[in-house]
Amino acid sequence: xxxxxxxxxxxxxxxxDNSPIGIVLCADKSESVVKYTLPAxxxxxxASKYKLxxxxxxxxxxxxxxx
Length: 67
Fold this sequence. Notes:
mainly alpha, 3 helices, 42% helix, 0% strand
């Protein structure tokens, strides 16, 4: 991923563009994947959990009541 981000940065970006971002999608959490995917000095890392399926109506309503 870093190769593609650096290629875009060096060859395709226009003046004034923000730096490119990379998105890593994983089925399971793996600190090793994060550790070796990102540069050692990376300071802006954001993580989120995604579901592989939509919740049922009952699960959705139950989750809304908990908040």
